[in-house]
Amino acid sequence: MRGLFSVLTLVCLGLGCAQGQLKLLSVFGDHMVLQCGLHVAIWGWAKPDEEVVVVLDGQVEVKTKSDGQGRWIVKLSPQPAGGPHELVITAGNEKIRFTDVFFGEVWLCFGQSNMAWTLKLTQNAPKEISEANYPQIRIFVVGQAATLKPQNDCKGEWLICTPETVADFSAVAYFFGREIHTSLRVPVDLIGSYWGGTPAEAWMDMETLKSEPDFEPIVKRFPHHLLDSETFAKAQAEHDQAMAEWWKKSGAYGFGQQKRGVVKA
From CA 209, how far away is CA 212, in angstroms rounded? Predict the structure, then answer.
């Protein structure tokens, strides 16, 4: 998803940042895939007013200076698909090194339960999982967190697509990524951000909802008790469990058990 890092950049730079040490978001790490063919933003935090140097393979070097709050951002020149590469970020006496970095196609895979449906619950799951050995497909699952305010980071780590790592990943995202990888023959980056049962407005901040008159009914019916993130997370977990039990009772648990994959409800 070519615009992903630009969107995340806007979110990050609009927020307060940690100070006093070199740091990057969790979406930057070993085994990541960055978008090929476009300028790629790399950003994070350092000490205020400190020079930051980003070097790709010891050759491509970009420098910048952090602002008064320690925030910094650089853009790498467009790179062809391929790898592996090494990315080194230095600020003062601090250094962060990322290895096994590739350039390829980057896609954000988000949604509700359809996107969250894991590979291990699909038709022919054992066979599909055992054959899911694609070293140049990388997966990242955004940790679920309920909050009413934009966050400047998330939980998650990059994993190489193997039978050991892919079983609990989104089936839709995996099959899509596999098709892209095998047809284009380039590395593929799949960022999974999904949460079953969430309405569209759950993915929008309250300020945006309040800014549009058409969204007024949504704001009015927003459950007050869900304003607390802990309560929201508990309610969502109960909903997910109830849905899983319903699928089992209805006989639709695991689409592969249904004739021609058709489920009647």
Answer: 6
Q: What average pLDDT score do residues 13-26 get? A: 64
Residue in this structure with the two tokens 């099959």, named with its chain if needed: 175
Contact yes or no for 247/264 (Cβ under 8 A): no
Contacts of 187 (CB under 8 A, 6+ apart): 33, 81, 82, 83, 102, 103, 104, 105, 136, 137, 138, 181
| Ranges 159-163, 211-215, 224-228, most confident | 159-163
pLDDT tens track for 180-213: 999 999 999 999 988 887 777 777 777 888 888 8
Mean pLDDT of 217-238: 65
Q: Please give the radius of gyration of the chain, using alpha carbons only, rounded to the nearest integer.
A: 21
Please give the DSSP secondary-structure letter assigned to residue 108: E
Of 255, 129, 254, 244, give the one whose Cα is nearest residue 196: 244
Which helix or strand (DSSP H or E) is residue 129 part of?
A: helix 125-130
- Rounded to whole angstroms, how far apart are CA atoms 134 and 219? 44
What gap in Å lies between CA 98 and CA 30, rounded to an integer? 5
78/206 Cα distance (integer angstroms): 36
Q: Is the pLDDT of residue 10 over 70?
A: no
CATH of span 18-194: 2.60.40.10
Where along the chain do its domains lie? 18-194
Instruction: Write the CB contacts of 44 (distance below 8 Å, at least 6 apart in sequence).
Output: 22, 23, 24, 25, 28, 72, 89
| Paired strand residues for 45 | 23, 71
Question: What pLDDT score does 173 carry?
Answer: 95
Interacting residues of 30 by C-beta distance below 8 A, sequence separation 6+? 98, 99, 100, 101, 158
Omega cis (within 30) before 84: yes
